Amino acid sequence: MAHHFARSLLVLAALSLSGCAAFSPDSGMTTVSELTSQSISKDVAFVRTSEGEDAVDGRMRQLLSRTLTADTAVQIALLNNKGLQAAYNELALAETDLVEQSLPPNPVFSISRISGNGASEIERQVVGDILALATLPFRSDIARDRFRQAQLRAALATLRLAADVRRAYWRAVAGNEMVVLLTDAKATAESTAQLAVKLGETGSLNKLDQAREQVFYAETTADLATARQTAASARERLARLMGLWDGGLDFRLPNALPPLPRRPLALPSIETDAVAHRIDLQIARLELTALAKSLNLTEATRFVTLLDLAGISRRTQDPEGAPFRERGFDVQFQIPIFDGGEVRVRQAAETYNLAFNRLTERAVNVRSEARDAYRSYRSIYDIASHYQREIIPLRKIITEEMQLRFSSMQVDIFALLTEARQRLASLRGAIDAKQRFFLAQSDLQTVVNGGGSPAAGSDSPTTIAAAAPADGGH
User: Fold this and answer.
1) What is the reported pLDDT for 222?
2) Which UniProt keywords apply (predicted)?
3) Could you tell me which residues come within 8 angstroms of residue 15 by beta carbon, excluding any fewer than 6 positions away?
4) Are 174 and 431 in contact, with CB atoms under 8 Å apart?
């Protein structure tokens, strides 16, 4: 009988080994690359060799050799950001968990020797966890779902970095444009302030008007200093996201934001697209599937949580007789007298319900976020377009007419300076509106594909995974 049990144990182990997972050549990065290219059409690389580092460095030097666009900034970050590389390391670690969960439990060998008064006894045992071996296909299936989740989390980290880089890029370029505008405004204000001082010396300008011109120059100087600091901080944040060291801080950025598109995007099915494509929802769905399988496994093994089979071979040496050998087996199992598995089943069921409710809540929030992001995008486009089509051209006409009237001495210099202040305010408003449009455009792409910051109360894979072990609680 012991021989038959040992043979059955070996056969079951052989069948289990036939379905074991093996390490993939790319640690699951093919799926990450496909998801990323579908959403943002950019290359990703998991750098683990010196040859890979050299290839990335060469690509970066090529991209940094010209003025950066939003797309090139994103590409540099996806290749060079070490935080993203750490996320890919986590994916590689998740693959080790998959391989580990697909392997059958190692048998335990033991040998003991007892002697005394000339007699000796040697016992050998091989112990196998039959329950773990029987549930191996189920646990391996759950581990595959967990690995698929890890791939989606790596893709989500990639999209989040791309979204952050785009936002930082638009803020940095808008900062440059604001600096250029205020630099010109400061030069004009300085000239008028000096003119006011000279007119005051001749008695042609009273102290009140002199103070008005001086304060305009002082305020413009302060605004320019603030704009320079804002632009420098935005540039530093962009450099951090791109993973650039000191030598890469001389990258070139445009001095002005690009023009608005001729017409805004029309996305009538944005809610459906967001629910279908959001990677965080895909992660939550896989989590729910894994928890359902874990719940089924827990229910199936609620009464039996320990089942070990040991083959025993014992050789006894007696000085008064011939040595003899004994063979047999030992079976260990737990009797569910006090704990019939109700606690584990209840925990698994409540963990599943928790994940289901969070998935439903997240789906509702995603639809709302999609609607809100599109409304904001259209509204901000209309505002920025209104500045470009109406306000700025009218301000240009007013400035030209005021200059003509000043040349013909129909208005004095103070009216011209008042118009200069108002035009400066309109130009600053136009830059701000255009910056908010490009940020809204980035947010719109993010809300459809995923990549934004996790919402408060959203499904957290780490929390849920901790609540429900991948082996169903065994």
Assistant:
1) 94
2) Signal
3) none
4) yes
Q: Token digits for 56?
A: 């990335």
- Letter for the amino acid at 128? G
Over residues 16-41, the mean pLDDT reads: 77
DSSP-derived letter for residue 26 is T
**pLDDT, tens digit (0-9, with 9 covering 90-100), for 172-200:** 999 999 999 999 999 988 887 787 777 77
- Predicted confidence (pLDDT) per residue in 301-336, tens digit: 554 554 555 666 766 666 666 676 767 666 665 556
Q: Could you tell me how far CA 243 lies from the centroid of its own chain? A: 16
Which element (helix H / strand E) includes 401? helix 392-407
User: For a pLDDT cut of 70, what percent of the chain falls above it?
Assistant: 78
Q: Are 341 and 305 in contact (CB under 8 A)?
A: yes
Residues with Cβ within 8 Å of residue 169, at least 6 apart in sequence: 68, 70, 73, 74, 238, 253
pLDDT digits (tens, 9 = 90+) for 119-131: 777 777 777 666 6
Query: How many Å apart are CA 59 and CA 94, to the nearest integer?
Result: 29
Rg (CA), the chain: 35
CB atoms within 10 A of CB 150: 26
The strand pairing partners of 313, in sequence order, are 124, 327
Determine the Cα–Cα distance for residues 309 and 333; give it in Å rounded to an integer. Answer: 9
CB atoms < 10 A from the CB of 157, how many? Answer: 21
Q: Say what the alpha-carbon torsion angle 16, 21, 22, 23 is, to the nearest 10 degrees.
A: -150
Phi, psi of 332 (to 5 degrees): -120, 130
The CATH homologous superfamily of the domain defined by 264-302+341-451 = Outer membrane efflux proteins (OEP) (1.20.1600.10)
Which ranges of 102-129 does DSSP label H, i.e. alpha helix?
none
Report which secondary-structure segment, H or E, holds 110: strand 108-116
> In angstroms, how far is the first alpha carbon of the chain from the final one?
28
Please, are residues 147 and 461 in contact by the beta-carbon 8 Å criterion?
no
pTM: 0.77
Q: How far apart are CA 87 and CA 110, in angstroms?
A: 42
Beta-carbon contacts of residue 17 (< 8 Å; ≥ 6 apart): 103, 104
What is the longest distance spanned by two Cα atoms in the chain?
A: 137
The answer to whether the CB of 329 falls within 8 A of the CB of 309 is yes
Backbone angles phi, psi at 294, to 5 degrees: -65, -40
**How far, in Å, CA of 57 to CA of 66, rounded?**
15
CA distance 12 to 151: 31
